[in-house]
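I'll show an entry:

:::
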Amino acid sequence: MGGMQNPLRILIVDSHGQPVRWAALPRAARYYASGKVVTDLGENLFAMSGGYQERSGLRSEFVTSSIVMIRGRHRVPMTHAHVGLTKHRLFARDRNICAYCGGQFIEADLTVEHIVPVSRGGRHEWTNVVTACRSCNTRKGNRRPEEARMPLLFVPYAVCRNEGFILSNRRILADQMAFLQATLPKHSRWAHA
């Protein structure tokens, strides 16, 4: 498992159902070992083998659910409530669809497109960026969409914290997705995926 590029992650939530973090199996095991786990919420179970017991010679095994609730309420500092803008998260938010032509592309053929170009005062933030194919990005150039006569097919929006959890895990499981989707705002492209 250590050599995998995107290892399985367990969704850790607090006692109020708010996501806390994605955790690898060893970290999830530490929550169980320290008595912090309240209950398992996920539909999927995963096992991890431990060391051998000296007396019996048997190997210990740890089993966890794909969603684990831990004790307490996790208070999110305001600096962490904001979801950082990355190329991968932007493309995932927009479902790899060009905001100008509507085509769906692989990541290698996409660009981060600033609606109001940075050179013209536009900011690098969620509400000023969309996914664009290389051809549309080149055609639009250093102009605003209306100047280039290239209307946007969808409106950009800032993702909420729970949507950020979806966008940051490439190997999200169906039960984890359903859990996170239940709290998304209606405008989210992931609310009814």
Observations:
- Helices lie at 25-33, 78-81, 87-93, 134-140, 161-167, 174-181.
- The chain is about 20% helix and 20% strand.
- Residues 112 and 173 are 27 Å apart (CA to CA).
